[in-house]
Amino acid sequence: MTARLPNKVNKLAALVFAIAGSVKLALGTPLEGILIQGDQTLVYTLTNRTVMGISFLWKMLFGLGIIFLAIPGFNHPKTGKIIPSLGILFGLAIVIINFQAFPHEPEQVDLLGIGPFAPVWHLLMAIIIALSGNWVNGKLSDLSK
To answer: Taking the model in full, what pTM does it have?
Structure first.
């Protein structure tokens, strides 16, 4: 039990570091001209940039989550190699496109947003895994022995 604690702490630390870094990156752009317009515009701009940074972080974690979900799919007998490969490609595309478009949304800089296609992949993986209940039950019974 205690061996898992450092792992959980490291995961939390990595998440906090990623959030802090992305917000700092979003807020690090020059504020010249904004200060002249008054405090209300400054607060709006800082809030907007903070939201942009957190949105960017969410997309990065979403893309990485798809990749990490697809990798074990290669060991599942029902998913084959094509579906996990598509998941890795979707995840990489989300990460790369959002890095390329930052600090804007991909659609604002004429890049294709891959995010809306990801739920289709998730649904396909869920259906395939749900239909392979006997294989899952066999793996669970092996773990309980």
So the answer is: 0.65
